[in-house]
Specification:
Layout lengths: L9 E5 L11 E5 L9 E10 L2 E5 L16 E10 L2 E4 L4
Antiparallel strand pairs: 1-5, 2-3, 2-5, 3-4, 5-6
Length: 92
């Protein structure tokens, strides 16, 4: 997600349920691979449906193909550190 973050930024994540999120929030979640190959993803919430969150990376042209279910959600990015300075996330 190079739109908001740069390589080397430290993301500060708070636990959050799907019900506490809104469009514009940046979330961290597990991708859908098997546990031993799983990768954490960072995308922005662009919508909310009963099936889960609609997410999209800032540099992606299209949203993720499937809604994000709550069980894969790790949390919401609230701040990030860059160059020794803590900054707030825009949008959420």
């Amino acid at each position: 997600m190079a739109g908001a973050f740069r390589s080397g930024d430290l993301l500060l994540i708070e636990s959050e349920s799907v019900g506490g999120l809104r469009p514009g929030d940046v979330v961290v979640y597990n991708d859908s691979r098997p546990a031993h190959h799983r990768v954490n993803m960072v995308h922005r919430v662009i919508g909310i449906k009963p099936q889960g969150l609609i997410c999209q990376g800032d540099n992606n042209r299209l949203p993720d193909p499937e809604p994000l279910p709550e069980e894969r959600l790790i949390g919401r990015v609230t701040r990030f550190e860059r160059g020794g300075r803590i900054r707030k996330i825009r949008g959420g």
